[in-house]
Protein backbone atom coordinates (compact mmCIF):
# COMPACT_ATOMS: atom_id res chain seq x y z
CA UNK A 1 0.00 0.00 0.00
CA UNK A 2 1.26 3.43 -0.86
CA UNK A 3 -0.19 5.60 1.91
CA UNK A 4 -0.92 5.47 5.61
CA UNK A 5 -4.54 6.24 4.70
CA UNK A 6 -4.76 2.85 2.97
CA UNK A 7 -3.37 1.12 6.04
CA UNK A 8 -6.08 2.73 8.12
CA UNK A 9 -8.71 1.37 5.74
CA UNK A 10 -7.20 -2.11 5.98
CA UNK A 11 -7.16 -1.80 9.79
CA UNK A 12 -10.83 -0.76 9.79
CA UNK A 13 -11.70 -3.80 7.68
CA UNK A 14 -9.79 -6.11 10.04
CA UNK A 15 -11.50 -4.57 13.08
CA UNK A 16 -14.95 -4.91 11.52
CA UNK A 17 -14.37 -8.55 10.55
CA UNK A 18 -12.89 -9.39 13.96
CA UNK A 19 -15.72 -7.56 15.71
CA UNK A 20 -18.27 -9.59 13.78
CA UNK A 21 -16.59 -12.85 14.72
CA UNK A 22 -16.32 -11.80 18.36
CA UNK A 23 -20.00 -10.76 18.49
CA UNK A 24 -20.92 -14.15 17.03
CA UNK A 25 -18.67 -16.02 19.47
CA UNK A 26 -20.00 -14.13 22.50
CA UNK A 27 -23.68 -14.16 21.45
CA UNK A 28 -24.39 -17.09 23.73
CA UNK A 29 -23.36 -14.97 26.73
CA UNK A 30 -26.49 -12.89 26.07
CA UNK A 31 -28.81 -15.87 25.65
CA UNK A 32 -31.67 -15.81 28.12
CA UNK A 33 -30.97 -12.19 29.05
CA UNK A 34 -33.47 -10.76 26.54
CA UNK A 35 -31.57 -7.51 25.93
CA UNK A 36 -30.66 -6.10 22.56
CA UNK A 37 -26.97 -5.78 21.83
CA UNK A 38 -27.14 -2.01 22.44
CA UNK A 39 -29.03 -2.47 25.70
CA UNK A 40 -26.42 -4.96 26.86
CA UNK A 41 -23.65 -2.56 25.84
CA UNK A 42 -25.22 0.33 27.77
CA UNK A 43 -25.86 -1.87 30.81
CA UNK A 44 -22.21 -2.93 30.74
CA UNK A 45 -21.12 0.71 30.51
CA UNK A 46 -23.27 1.64 33.53
CA UNK A 47 -22.38 -1.36 35.71
CA UNK A 48 -18.66 -1.27 34.94
CA UNK A 49 -18.24 2.53 35.21
CA UNK A 50 -16.01 3.86 37.99
CA UNK A 51 -18.38 6.85 38.30
CA UNK A 52 -21.99 7.02 37.20
CA UNK A 53 -21.97 7.98 33.50
CA UNK A 54 -24.42 10.07 31.53
CA UNK A 55 -26.02 9.13 28.22
CA UNK A 56 -23.82 11.61 26.28
CA UNK A 57 -20.67 10.22 27.91
CA UNK A 58 -21.60 6.66 26.96
CA UNK A 59 -22.45 7.79 23.42
CA UNK A 60 -19.05 9.48 23.00
CA UNK A 61 -17.21 6.48 24.44
CA UNK A 62 -19.02 4.05 22.14
CA UNK A 63 -19.11 6.29 19.10
CA UNK A 64 -22.92 6.08 18.93
CA UNK A 65 -25.43 8.91 18.68
CA UNK A 66 -26.82 10.06 22.01
CA UNK A 67 -30.34 9.19 20.85
CA UNK A 68 -29.44 5.53 20.31
CA UNK A 69 -27.91 5.30 23.77
CA UNK A 70 -30.90 7.17 25.27
CA UNK A 71 -33.36 4.64 23.80
CA UNK A 72 -31.35 1.77 25.28
CA UNK A 73 -31.08 3.54 28.65
CA UNK A 74 -34.85 4.15 28.67
CA UNK A 75 -35.52 0.47 27.96
CA UNK A 76 -33.13 -0.56 30.74
CA UNK A 77 -34.80 1.85 33.18
CA UNK A 78 -38.26 0.52 32.24
CA UNK A 79 -37.04 -2.99 33.09
CA UNK A 80 -35.62 -1.83 36.42
CA UNK A 81 -32.01 -2.56 35.43
CA UNK A 82 -30.74 1.03 35.76
CA UNK A 83 -31.98 4.18 37.46
CA UNK A 84 -31.34 7.85 36.94
CA UNK A 85 -30.15 10.41 39.45
CA UNK A 86 -29.76 14.17 39.20
CA UNK A 87 -26.37 15.28 37.94
CA UNK A 88 -24.93 18.14 39.99
CA UNK A 89 -22.74 19.10 37.02
CA UNK A 90 -25.48 19.19 34.37
CA UNK A 91 -29.20 19.86 34.67
CA UNK A 92 -30.34 17.77 31.71
CA UNK A 93 -27.84 14.88 31.60
CA UNK A 94 -28.84 12.61 34.46
CA UNK A 95 -26.41 10.14 35.99
CA UNK A 96 -27.11 6.49 35.21
CA UNK A 97 -26.86 4.04 38.08
CA UNK A 98 -27.14 0.25 38.02
CA UNK A 99 -29.84 -1.33 40.14
CA UNK A 100 -29.20 -4.54 42.03
CA UNK A 101 -31.12 -6.43 39.33
CA UNK A 102 -29.02 -4.79 36.60
CA UNK A 103 -25.79 -5.62 38.40
CA UNK A 104 -26.85 -9.26 38.86
CA UNK A 105 -27.81 -9.57 35.20
CA UNK A 106 -24.50 -8.03 34.09
CA UNK A 107 -22.53 -10.34 36.38
CA UNK A 108 -24.34 -13.35 34.91
CA UNK A 109 -23.47 -12.20 31.38
CA UNK A 110 -19.87 -11.55 32.46
CA UNK A 111 -19.58 -15.05 33.91
CA UNK A 112 -20.83 -16.57 30.65
CA UNK A 113 -18.49 -14.33 28.65
CA UNK A 114 -15.53 -15.44 30.78
CA UNK A 115 -16.33 -19.09 30.01
CA UNK A 116 -16.45 -18.29 26.28
CA UNK A 117 -13.21 -16.29 26.49
CA UNK A 118 -11.46 -19.22 28.18
CA UNK A 119 -12.43 -21.46 25.27
CA UNK A 120 -11.35 -18.91 22.66
CA UNK A 121 -8.02 -18.02 24.24
CA UNK A 122 -6.85 -21.58 23.67
CA UNK A 123 -6.47 -20.62 19.99
CA UNK A 124 -4.81 -17.25 20.68
CA UNK A 125 -1.59 -15.94 22.18
CA UNK A 126 -2.59 -14.00 25.34
CA UNK A 127 0.43 -11.68 24.96
CA UNK A 128 -0.65 -10.80 21.41
CA UNK A 129 -4.20 -10.12 22.61
CA UNK A 130 -2.89 -7.80 25.34
CA UNK A 131 -0.65 -6.01 22.83
CA UNK A 132 -3.49 -5.67 20.31
CA UNK A 133 -5.66 -4.18 23.06
CA UNK A 134 -2.94 -1.69 23.94
CA UNK A 135 -2.38 -0.74 20.31
CA UNK A 136 -6.09 -0.29 19.60
CA UNK A 137 -6.38 1.93 22.68
CA UNK A 138 -3.50 4.02 21.40
CA UNK A 139 -5.07 4.28 17.94
CA UNK A 140 -8.44 5.21 19.46
CA UNK A 141 -6.79 7.97 21.48
CA UNK A 142 -5.08 9.23 18.33
CA UNK A 143 -8.41 9.38 16.52
CA UNK A 144 -10.06 11.31 19.35
CA UNK A 145 -11.49 14.64 18.28
CA UNK A 146 -11.20 17.27 21.04
CA UNK A 147 -14.58 18.84 20.26
CA UNK A 148 -16.41 15.62 21.21
CA UNK A 149 -15.08 15.45 24.77
CA UNK A 150 -12.77 12.91 26.30
CA UNK A 151 -12.98 9.31 25.09
CA UNK A 152 -13.63 6.47 27.48
Can you describe what's shown?
Strand 1 and strand 2 (90-98) form a beta hairpin. Helix 3 packs across helix 4. The radius of gyration is 17 Å and the shape is globular. It is mainly alpha-helical and 152 residues long. The chain is built from 6 helices and 2 strands; from the N terminus they run H-H-H-H-E-E-H-H. It has one domain (18-144): Arc Repressor Mutant, subunit A. Residues 8-141 form the HTH marR-type domain. This is MarR family winged helix-turn-helix transcriptional regulator. InterPro entries: HTH_MarR-typ, MarR/SlyA-like, WH-like_DNA-bd_sf, WH_DNA-bd_sf.
Please provide the ordered H/E string of secondary-structure elements. Answer: HHHHEEHH
User: Class, according to the CATH hierarchy?
Assistant: Mainly Alpha
Helix-strand category: mainly alpha
Query: What is the CATH H-level superfamily?
Result: Winged helix-like DNA-binding domain superfamily/Winged helix DNA-binding domain
Give the percentage of residues in beta strands. 5-15%
Q: What keywords describe this structure?
A:
single chain; 152 residues; mainly alpha; Arc Repressor Mutant, subunit A; HTH_MarR-typ; WH-like_DNA-bd_sf; MarR family winged helix-turn-helix transcriptional regulator; MarR/SlyA-like
Amino acid sequence: MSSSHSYLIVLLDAIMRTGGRLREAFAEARQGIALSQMEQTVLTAVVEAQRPPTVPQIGRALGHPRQVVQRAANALAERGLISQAPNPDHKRANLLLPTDAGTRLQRRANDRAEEIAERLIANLDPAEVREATRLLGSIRAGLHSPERGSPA
